[in-house]
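Objective 1b. Sequence-to-structure analysis of DUF1707 domain-containing protein.
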Amino acid sequence: MSEVERSARRVADSDREKVAQLLYEAMGAGRITTAELETRLDAVYSAKTFADFEPVIADLSPMSTGPEDARGGRSSIAVMSGTRRRFDGMLPSKHVSRALWGSVRLDLRYAEIAADPCTIRAVAIMGGVKIVVPEDFVVDVRGVGLMGGFGTGRGRAPRRAAVGAPVLRVTGFAWWGSVKVIRKAREPLTRGRRR
C-alpha cells in the first residue's frame, strides 16, 4: 500500500485512541501544553482518515540539537512513511530513531564507533525500527516492548567479541510495533550497493 493510499484510508476508533495516547505522552513529557492537548484531541476524535492525523502529530518529531542533525546523524524519523539510512564512517555517540506508523531501517555495517558505547534510542509506535549491525559490534539491547517486540531478530549468531570491541547500546520502546537488531556480515562498499 502506498503512502497516499494509506493516508486516504478511514480510521477506526482504536486508531484515534492510539493517537490520543501519543498526545498524552507528549504532554507528560512537557512537549505540548494542556490547552494544546485539548485542541489536538478534538482534531483526533473528529478525524476521518489517517491524513487527518498528520497535522496533529507532525511537530512531535525529535528536535534538532546541533549541526550534526542537519546531516541526519543524530535522528531518523518516519511518520506514515519509510526511512532508510546507511552510516558510513563514525556514528554519533547518540542517535534517536522514531517510527510512527512507518518504518526506519538503519544499516550500520559500514559504520565505526568512536565513543564507547554508542547509544541508539529506538521508538516504534505502530511501526518498526530495524537496525542492521556488523558481526564485530557488541550489542547491548535494553528496550521494552509493550504489545510489541523489542530485541534481536534473525541473523547471524554473534561471534565472541574481541577485547575492546565497539559497543552499541539500543534503548527505547515498541508500542504496537517492533524494534529489531539484526546481525549481518560486513560487505564491500561499492557504488552500486547504496542501501
